[in-house]
Each structure stands twice: as C-alpha cells, then as structure tokens.
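Example with several molecule types.
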Amino acid sequence: MIEVKGLTKIFGDITAVNDISFKVKKGEVLGFLGPNGAGKTTTMRMLTCFSPATSGTATIGGYDIFDDFFEIKKILGYLPESPPLYLELTAREYLDYVSKLKGVAKSRRKSALDMVIDRCGLEKVIDRVLGNLSKGYRQRVGLAQALINDPEVIILDEPTSGLDPKQIIEIRELIKSLAGERTVILSTHILPEVTHVCQKIIVINEGNIIAEDTYEQLSARLKEANNTTLIVREPTVDLLDKISSVSGALSVTHDFDGNVKTIRVESATDIDLREELAKLVVASGSGLLELKHEAMSLEDVFLKLITKEDRTEN
Amino acid sequence: MGNVINITKKELKSYFISPIAYVIATVFLIITGYMYWKNVMAFNAACFRAASLPEALKRLNVNRDIFISNFRSIIVTIMYMMPIITMRIFSEEKKNKTMELLMTSPVTVPEVVFGKFLASFILYAGIIGTTLYMPLFISTVQFTMGDLYWTPILVGYLGVLMLGSVFLAIGIFASSLTENQIVAAVISFGFILMFTLIDAAAAQVQGLLRVILSKLSLVAHSRSFFNGVIDSRDVIYYLSFMALALFLTFRVVESKRWTQ
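Resulting structure tokens for the full complex:
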C-alpha cells in the first residue's frame, strides 16, 4: 500500500530525514517511534504531499507522491501534530467544511458526519465552537477530520497527545478498529502506544531508521542485556578489575564521584550475576550497601536503540 | 469551481463570525458618511452663491461636484481598510496550522487563493454597496441645472471595485508572506501607499521616467472611471495588477511548502 524509497529531506544544512525506506502492507498499522525532532513529522509531511522530499520517492496506493499527489490527497486522511482547526467555527460547521474540501459526495456527507461523531465521541460537543473545546476534544475533532472522507490511508501524527488516560485508551481502540481495512501510519514518542496498536514498528532517530520490526522481535532482540547496579561505601582499588573479570559480565560502568558510588554491570539475559557479584564485593571489603537487579523496560529498549546509534556515530 | 465556492463560503462565515466585518463596515460608513455630508454641503453652498447668476448655476454639475470628490474620499478610506480585511487570510491559516489541512486536501493552490480572494471581494463589494444610499438620496432631488446621471455613477463604482480588488490582491499577497497579521497589514499598506504616492514621485522627475511612473500609479488609473469613462487601459492595468498579485500569492504559498 505504501512504499517508501530513499526518502530524504534537507533543510539548509540540516538533514531532517536521511534516506529512509520502508513498506507498509494494506491493512497494517505502522508505528513511527522516535524522540522529538527525530524526523517523524517531516516524514509524514512528505508522505501526505504537504512538503516535497529533497530526494527519493514514495508511492501510496500505487500513486507517486510527486506525480499523482492529487490522487493521493483523495484517499488520505491526515491528522497533523496540532489539529488543524478553525477555532471560530463549531465542530459541525468545521467537519462539514472539511468533508466538502475532501470531496465527500453530497449524498454521503450526512452519514460521514454521523459516522465520525459516533466514532470519535463528539455527540456532546458537535454544536460548540472549537475554540472553547478542551485539548482532548480538539484532538478528537482533529481525528474526526482525518476520518471523514473514509480514507484508505490514514496518517496520524501523535494522535494521543494531550488526551487523558481514558481518552487515550478510546483512541487506541479506535485506531485498532481501523486496522484491517485501512492502512494506518501513526507516530509517537510514547512507547506503550506502539505496543498496543501497531503490527510493525519503525524506530527513527536523527532522520535515520534504526530499527524496523514487530514489537515482540524488537524487544527480544534488545533484551540481550541484564543490568545489575551496585552501590558501595568505599571501592577498593582493584574492585572494578575484579568485577570486569567475572565471567558473563559484558560491560562495567561506574560513577565514583559524589557520595553515592555506583557500579553498573551488564550481562546477558540468561545469566544472573547477583550472587557472584555480592560475594565478590563483600570479599573485597568495599562495603556493599545496595544491590539491585534491573530488567529492561520498554523505555530502556527505546533509549538503548537511540544511544546505540549515537555510539556508532561517534 | 465547487472547491472555490466552498472556500469562499467558509471565509465569508469567518468574516462574519469575527467582529472584523462589522467593525470595518461601521467605521467605513461613519467616515464616508461624514465626507459625503461635507461634499453635499459644499455643493449646497455653491448653489447658494450661484443662485443669482444663471450662467454660474449652469456650470454646476451634480455628478461632478458631489460624486467625483465622493469617490475620492471612498478610495482614501478603503486604502486604510483593505489591509485589515486581508491581513488574516493566509496568516491565520499558518498560525492555526490549518494550512496543512488545506494543502493535504484535494484542492489546488489556485483554488484556495481564488476562493479567498472572492470572499474578501464579496465582503468588500457589500461594504461599498452600502454607500449606494448616497446617489439614491441625491437622485430624489430635482436640480435646476439637471438631475443626477446614473451611468457615470455606476462607472465610478466599477472603478472603486476594480481599484479595491487590486488592494485586496496586494493584501492577500502580503498575508501569504507571514504568519503575523500585523506584519501582513503593514506590508500591504506599504505597497498600497507606494503605488499611490508614485504619482507624487512622477511629478518630481522628467521625461520617460515621469511617463512610466505616472502610468504605474494605482489611483491615477481610477480618474477616468470617476469621470464616467471606462478606459480599456485602466481596466487592463487593474486586471493585470490583480492577476500578478494573485499569481505571486500562489507562488509564495506553493514555495513555502518546501521549507516545512
């Protein structure tokens, strides 16, 4: 459905998106994951034909983003980072305007409006002026706007930002319900989001794709490491060397500045070093104050992917 | 065409939801109303002075003596008003990020530009239309030197509408340049003033330059309309000026996409 080949966007000296390529099948939900400023929005703007790419191409539903952008716009629903609302209009007036803009046939406009009111939960606010709505409702109207032309491809830029937990769950359910018949790309910097709704995840950082996989495989691949953190009273001179020589310890980092002296030991997932490390530190007479085992959370997976990239770059 | 009408309708709705349309219309009517009263009173005084001299009375003319100066006061007022009507047209879209909606919908940039232009033109024509009470009122009066002629009045209004359209097109262009409405208003006012004062600049120089500068003046081209003459040179000048400004707007909107 969507095929991206070597898409690049350069602003002056800054490469916002650098030679990215990926494919999305019909009916799939793709999650774009990355920190703020990673190039998620820029990529989406290129796909929606809002902003032309510096180089590279992409096709959506077989249409080229340069040559057939007018056709793409007809089959596309797009929710930008901040919902594009005319704050002086009521939700009804606004959605009516958008449905005309998107070329929804006159006979289908009413049912399209009813459909999005129902799907996005807008019954209560439909006749209120958009400027008076809360951020959560504005976001929902933004989402309604993206769905009103019953698009084949839906691109959502941070669809759940500004919503409360209950609304977030509702929106996620909504996005899930879109999968199957429609192709969805959504971006987020919130990790649990992608695990809930996306079949496929692309992690993007500084304009480069650094991982592309399903969530399960992504986290399995990254959970190669286990962390054990030690806090000691006074490390002896050879303590670090001793710890490094423990079999199974992949890397040892330390922070001896200040009052709390910490050592962090990384090991493979299937090896538990706690017992051995405890013995070793106690025996060395460094004074073991604390020993903590940390399994890798989603946030760690994410951070690790990003910092990994940094390390290889430097 | 459906898209143009849709955009025009929405723009008009926005004008009338916000106080802009009402405030502009009110201020415009107060100022032009006062000027009209002054013009009528001046004509009245001239009639009194000429009452005893049939020759002098014959030389007076309702159309010329009231309405030429009346058209002038209308265009001086709109010079100040137009930038306010147009300043929000693209600036607000950018500020509210609704440009992204327009540009990702199946509408073309020329449709957007023209739809917006049409909306501001309809608002403008409506405001100008309210001044029709002036000739209507005069037409009910019987004058010894001859009644009011409607044709030159309507030609004068055509001139006001054409000149105003150029001002609107300039304002829309200025609005496309920035997301700050004040900056847009100042830029369009600067352009309008420049193409008005060019007349004075022309008087300072000689030869070919003088001819060129005087032909460029926006206001100078309205004079024959106010005298009741439709000169094709003026019509072509206004239409091409308008087309140029709208074309530049189209290019600016189109090119801004590259920096997003």
